[in-house]
Structure formats: C-alpha cells, structure tokens
Amino acid sequence: MFITGCHRSGTSLITSIFKDLINDKIDKSNLLTPQLDNPPGFFESKRIVNFNEQLLEVIGTTCNSPPITLPIWTEPPLIDILVNARKDFEDLAISSNWIDKDPRLCLLYPAYFHILLKRIPLIVCMREPIEVAVSLYARNGHSINTGLCMWFIYNHHISKFLTENDSFYFYEEFLNASDTDSEIHIYEQCCKTIEPIATQIASFDKFKETLKKRVKVYLNRSSSLTSALNENMCDLELLNICNDAYQKFHSSQKDLNIYQESFISIPSSVLKNLYKEKKLTIPYRSSEIKSNREIYDLQNSYKDLEVKLKTNKEVLSILSNSKKNLEVELEIKKESYKNLEVELEIKKESNRDLEKESNRVELERKNLEVELEKKRT
Question: What is the pTM of this model?
Fold first, then answer.
C-alpha cells in the first residue's frame, strides 16, 4: 500500500500509525533520517525517495516545482527506465503486506504500474491548504502562493488515478481524536483500509497507545504562524479556490467523485502564480528526456568511477601499508640474519679453538706413547 499526499499533509504521521496497526517492524536503517522539521521521522524508504527524485530529474521537474502535466511513461526512454527498475523493487511486486510512503507518488504513481506490474492501493492524506502552504513556507522558504499551487497540483494529479478501493484521511482526524468515540471511529476506518493487506491488525487498545505515542502537540506548529500571516502574503483568489476544493471534499464525507470533480483541472490562478513564481514546469519531450537520461547516465557512470577510484585508492593504501610492513619485516629478518652470521662466526672461531686444542692433546698423546716405548726398551 502506498501513502501519499502533498508535502506537509500529515503523510509521515499517518504512515507511522498504519505501520503500527499492521505491526510492521520498522528497519530504521532503510528510512530517511528524522530532521527538525519532522522529529519523529519521515517513514519514507530511501529506495523509493531516491528513485522518485531520479525520475523527477529525468523528466525535468522537481517535487518543489511539480509539472502541470504528466509525462507519457509508456514511451522510450521512460519505459526503459521503469523496466530496468523492476529488479530493484521485486520484493514489493511479489508481496502485498507492506506500506510505503512518499508525497512524490502524487506525481509519479502511474510509473509504478510499469515497475510493479500491478496496481497498488492508495491512501491519500489531506490537510487544509493554507496550513500546508505555511508549513512549506516555514520549512523550505516557499512563498504561500507556491505552497498553495503545490497543494492543488499534487491533488490534481493523484485524483486521476484513484478508485473506490482507495482511502482518504484528513490530518485533523488524528490530531483531534481526543475521546473514545472519535478514536473508535477512526480505528474502524483504519482497520477497513488495511484489511486487504494485513495478516493481523492491532487491537483498539494498541491503537489508542499508538495515537498517544505518535500524536503530539507540536505536530501542528504551523497553526500559530497561520494566524499571524498577513493576507497580503497570498493571492486571495488562489486561496479561495484551494479552500473551496478542500471544504467541498471535506463536507462530502470523503466522496471520491467530489474529490475528482474538485481537482479535475488546474485553475488559471494556479498557472498564473506558478508563472509569476517561475515554477511553471512541463515535463521534457521524449527527445529531451533521452538527452537528459544520457546526461544522468554519464553522471552515474562518473559517480561509479569515483567510487571505484576511491576503492582503488583504499586498496592501494592497504597494499602500500602491506608493502611497508613487509619491508619492516624484511629488515627485521635481515637483522636477524646478521645476528645469525655473527653467531656462526663465533661458533666457527670456537670450533677452530677446539680443533687446536684437540691437535695439541693428540700431539701430547703421541709424545707420551714414544716416551713410554723408550722406557720399555
């Protein structure tokens, strides 16, 4: 299951709660490192985020300048990239009881049809547009208008790929679940959502503990800044369009048709503000993508060469140290050999002295024999 939604819409919080519900053992080494803007963690796998960043780079956009149209994933070279990526996501393709999350999936979700060869159910997280915009302003320095445009475009793109089997969750649902009735209501919704993928579901008591652990006061820090904002900081027409879309869907009890109708097209005020902010982006054409892909491949080749060079330097350093150690060992052995030679010379000298003594004794013996013979005669 994929969890997505515009950045700063509560995707991290909601992902952490769902992972707890299915008792997903979280391997933190595979996740993005928590930051000040998200202290509990992003709950995004490095693999998904890195690959999505690469895809956005290849098509000539970024997550902060989302494209107003989507690329055609079935045309080369994009389809080739997706086919080649299958081996890296094989575990997701053959398994069903997993949850992963990335806001970029709002822009890239259809690409995964061709990677995983199946449709992955979606959870879309929603948050009031002005709170998203203010949070992006605080975190990334984006203008309020840019944040509102991002919020609309992210929802616009993902709305095209949703079915009745997908789910919506409002950030405020979890923040405001302060009594048993509201906790039971959202618990039942969550259980229904994850039933198709869960081998077991945590109890209601465990869910309450999860909410207590995950939902913190500071999670809605942008609300204090929102109230302090001057209306001159944003385009009121744009703000009203975003608010109308959000309120219409919010009051519809999560009606998919209402959601899709609310985001069916991109309003002129969104396009106007994106143009004004110099963030109006359209994906590259196939020829440009091919050229950009070649550049990207060259960059990767260069990075691979750098890694190999670094590895070779490390090997060379090890060999150099090994050579030095051998030279030291050789010097020690040479010194030992010299000592042995000296010892041998001493022994040879001692042996010569013994030979002389032996000759002297032999000579005396002969003299004694001669003298004895004389006495006998």
Answer: 0.74
Judge whether residue 354 has pLDDT over 80.
Answer: yes
Q: Do 117 and 93 contact (CB within 8 A), yes or no?
A: yes
d(CA 152, CA 148): 6
Three-state SS string over 345-376 comes to: HHHHHHHHHHHHHHHHHHHHHHHHHHHHHHHH
Pairing of strands 100-101, 167-170: unpaired
Over residues 102-143, the pLDDT tens digits come to 999 999 999 999 999 999 999 999 999 999 999 999 888 899
Residue 253 dihedral angles phi and psi, to the nearest 5°: 60, 45
pLDDT at 366: 87
Q: How far apart, in whole angstroms, are the C-alpha atoms of residue 133 and residue 142?
A: 8
Return the closest-CA partner of residue 130 out of 15, 247, 219.
Answer: 247
pLDDT tens track for 244-282? 999 999 999 999 999 999 999 999 999 999 999 999 898
- Tokens 């519900």 found at: 21
What domains does the chain contain, in order, with CATH numbers?
2-284 (3.40.50)
Structure tokens of 35?
């930051």
For residue 200, name the pLDDT band (cuts at 50, 70, 90). Answer: confident
